[in-house]
């Protein structure tokens, strides 16, 4: 094609058929990529809080896209309107697609009404990561927390999501818990819906 | 002891642990987005992606050699074949093909029809100079450097810019003889 100022794509990416999601890459390939992400961000920040925030932001972008993709492909474009509905979507569907298995557990917080926890014995992203002592409570699960936040935010359930290590008796590596704290409006809406 | 038989890319891929390619694709997209926001210049992003690929390549080669049991390659032709058939399959789950050999056998092209990095990706007008898959060229360069081959890897065709496949050219600059870190005592 002559002339046109901007280059034309071979096919419009929106015209391409959506893949079934069965394609796989090696775990080590993903682990290398993730380690580069963390290493790059380490050079850009001065403290751990900022590093976690950057990882979360990266995860947020992934979450947004995962929600759109899965809503269309797995759920036939049905939208979740209830709290438990979206939580079980995250706990089962999202986890199954991204990590190959459903999350280990989904619990409601006992102390606060608005807290829920998704726990995993060993997060996929943390498998090959060891955190040095001087980094304290830093958890690369912040990336996964970002993914969850991206999904919840764009599904209409704004929340603050963080990742924590929870030591478990008898296990050498601590369990990772993704703590979800929903915003006021979500709980009010949930109460209204009965 | 009989030498281990080199395994085919498919066999190894079936044996390694795998993750969903979409997680991989989306994570890579997040990385590129972060770089674009931080660095803003497309050339800088290309360089940074290549550097990241290089860092990955120097570590990836160990795993590759350990899992694939390949014997020492006789010449660069074999090297390129091994990268295309075994290496790419083992890590990305797709095979590449090798072509366009020059007369001396030091320069060839690897062609990827299927690339998990670019699912769902479209380059906006502001980023037309971006070599989205620079990380792959960095990985190849880094891995080969660790086995004593200094190479130069450049992108020839890019599907995101309208071509029909991904092609990058690998040019062998020189074979660096292995240096022993110890000096013999005189």
The helix tally of chain B amounts to 5
Radius of gyration of chain B: 17 Å
The name of the CATH superfamily of chain B reads Trafficking protein particle complex subunit 3
Number of domains of chain A: 1
Q: Show unreliable segments of chain A.
A: 1-10
How would you sum up the global shape of chain B?
globular
Outline the biggest β-sheet of chain A.
4 strands, antiparallel
The whole-number mean of residue pLDDT values of chain B reads 84
Mean pLDDT of chain A: 84
Oligomer state of the chains in this structure: heterodimer
Number of strands of chain B: 5
- The N- to C-terminal Cα distance of chain B equals 36 Å
Main location (chain A): endoplasmic reticulum
InterPro entries (chain A): NO_sig/Golgi_transp_ligand-bd, TRAPP-I_su5, TRAPP_component
Family (chain A): Belongs to the TRAPP small subunits family. BET3 subfamily.
Subcellular location (chain A): Endoplasmic reticulum; Golgi apparatus, cis-Golgi network
Description of the molecule:
- The complex is a heterodimer of chains A (194) and B (186).
- Chain A has 194 residues and is α+β, with helices and mostly antiparallel strands.
- Chain A has a single domain, classed as Muramoyl-pentapeptide Carboxypeptidase, domain 2 (2-Layer Sandwich), CATH 3.30.1380.20.
- Chain A is built from five helices and five strands.
- The radius of gyration of chain A is 19 Å and the shape is globular.
- Chain B has 186 residues and is α+β, with helices and mostly antiparallel strands.
- Chain B has one domain: Muramoyl-pentapeptide Carboxypeptidase, domain 2 (2-Layer Sandwich), CATH 3.30.1380.
- Chain B has a four-stranded antiparallel beta sheet with strand order 2-3-5-4, with helices on one face.
- In chain B, helix 2 runs antiparallel to helix 3.
- The longest helix of chain B has 27 residues.
- The model of chain B has no long low-confidence stretch (mean pLDDT 84).
- The interface between A and B is large, with 40 and 46 residues.
- Strand 1 of chain A pairs antiparallel with strand 1 of chain B, so a sheet runs across the interface.
